[in-house]
Amino acid sequence: MTMHKAALMVAGPALLLAACDPAGNGDVTVNETAASSHSQSEERAGVDAEARALNAAIQSGSEELLWLEEVEGEEALAFARAQNERSLGHLQADPRYQQHFDRALEVLESTDRIPFVTVRGSELWNFWQDAQNTHGLWRRTTLESYETANPEWDVVLDLDALADEEGRNWVWRGSSCLAPDYRHCMLTLSDGGSDAAHIREWDMESRSFVEDGFVVPPTKGTTAWIDEDTLLIATALDPAETTTSGYPFVVKRWTRGTPIEEAQVVFTGAASDVGVWPARFQQADGTFYLLATQAETFFESVYWLLPDNAQGEPIRLTLPRRVSPQALFGDQLVFSIEEDWTPVEGGETYPQGAVLSLSMSELAATGELPAIETVFVPGERQSVGGFAATANHLLAVIDENVVGGLWVFTRDENGWQRRQVETPENTSVSITTADDQSDLAFVSAQGYLTPNTLYRVSADATSLSPAKSMPAWFDTTGLEVEQREAVSADGTRIPYFIIHNPERSGAEPGPTLLYAYGGFQVSLNPSYSGTMGRLWLENGGTYVLANIRGGGEFGPAWHQAGLTINRQRIYDDLIAVSEALIADGITTPAQLGVVGGSNGGLLTGVMYTQRPDLFGAVISQVPLLDMMRFHTMLAGASWQAEYGFPDENPDERAFLRSISPLHNVDPDREYPPLFLLTSTKDDRVHPAHARKMAYLTGALGLDMLYYENMEGGHSAAANLRETANRLALEYTFLMQNLMDGEE
């Protein structure tokens, strides 16, 4: 568990561009009803001149489009609504849109989905959404019932009923309940899907919110229980206690019955930090430790042991700054390091990527760093996918060449021992839940053509037995999965998966959808998507996932190779995969589409501006596109360790200018159709990134569609129907441009 990282998306020349002029000079329009080709040419020339001036101003650093940063500004929303009307009119008029929507919704709302659970004591907890429960049900059952075909669920909270009662568009963000009885819970609910959310105390005995209980107004902060009458809180409610990234940097101790304003400060970071978050680590015997994560950058943190009373002082854990706590197993704090580390001068150096442990009780008692033990050191093509502790076993996902495996670790007088558990071949493995009070644990396994199956781990952690499985949602006849490699510009071999029908793709090039992310040490592993299979593969498409640098597929070094001014390597990796697909006859530039979201939206934006000749369609979801101002908008300041510090480092600013999609559109260059998607409620990546790109490309008369969901947050969807709508829009756009070229 990495504490702060867990807390860490066709305006043709003849269409009307309904965009408000920020200078107040009226609407910028492109006339689609010119009386003659001569007069139309004159009008286009006028618009072109104005658009060229706008583009030149943006490239020179002018903030001509700053008005689009007003999230709910009247002009900005008018622009978004006009674009929505145009884009929805174009895509939803295609009969395939409704077919896609219906087929996607069937998958998303299916009651045959696996109800994934969290273990709390003797109960299994699940949050569930379907056609009747759009906001969702928070519910529980027993292990015995869960293992039947039709579990009996006890609904604890009906979020639809609560939303109706309170007139809010509640989106579930999770619960934190106090062990071992789990009666006292803090529920996190977002109104519309934004990251800033309400935190309210819930009593399991009365099944109601606690009258005069702990209530935190909308915030990007978090809480952690000390005991039933005391919380640790980090709220970011006071601007004086909020970082430049919009997160809290002060942790307080809040006692029941006292105003939140009187909560006692127990730790203070700095406004320049990304943020500070409290957390509770608890052992099977009930011993617990309170920690605060002081994230100085997105990847560098200082961890503090906090007192469980009002008198103690925080103790700094002398760990490396690039470290990720993974689990508390017995007395051992298990953590991974993202940099080489020599704890004692002249002593042993532990390599980047190693998983280590130390005695938490010794650390708490003395404040000194105890002896370090090695749990696991990954090989060159391995990476650690996560840990979870049961009472007697430490479970770990260890990926080998992007394919998952399950390992079990134990510790005795001879140190750490490990063994591998047999799992289905060529699948991605993940730990869904583990109970540190018993040896109950569930893991899941899935592949591109293999529906997700949930397995129960045996009590001795030697084998897996199927517990539940997802139905097959699409026809896999003739389909195969291959893992290939492309050679990037610097000679690095970049793996990618291709899901296709070799007989068809071997006969002639065909429509191909390429997906990648390439950032923040996020690994992309094989996964089963019923919607992608139904809407793309079944319609003759080929799907490709590229494991480019910037991710964590091969450990920290794979990620760090593409940080800041080295980021072009990431883009070169995806270009290399694209060129390989074309050279191998899988597809052609006119039939190749690329899609990515958030950091992946930046990736596809760079593909759009750097290599438009490689693609027939580009989808950029909730994207970063203005890399000269990303750090000034919402949570953007927290990502400077990934992208660079444009206000502090001239070299990094120059590099960001060279790759910023908004600043690299050439009015004289041909570009593929572009589909930009964002959300007004996204308070993580500002919707202005997509708005600005839409305004500019629309003004230049480029082939662009834009859709801004007025709800939904960073996922761009607040419920399953909105998700189905987004998918239907995207696949309709892809088919129009890659399969049949319809306008």
From TrEMBL:
Domain Peptidase S9A N-terminal: 66-468
Keyword Ligase: no
Domain Peptidase S9 prolyl oligopeptidase catalytic: 535-738
UniProt xrefs under InterPro entries: AB_hydrolase_fold, Pept_S9A_N, Peptidase_S9_cat, Peptidase_S9A, Prolyl_oligopep/macrocyclase
Keywords of the record: Hydrolase, Protease, Serine protease
Gene3D superfamilies: alpha/beta hydrolase, Prolyl oligopeptidase, N-terminal domain
Pfam family, one: Peptidase_S9_N
Domain of life: Bacteria
PANTHER family xrefs: PROLYL ENDOPEPTIDASE
Protein name (record): Prolyl oligopeptidase family protein
Organism taxonomic ancestry: Bacteria, Pseudomonadati, Pseudomonadota, Alphaproteobacteria, Maricaulales
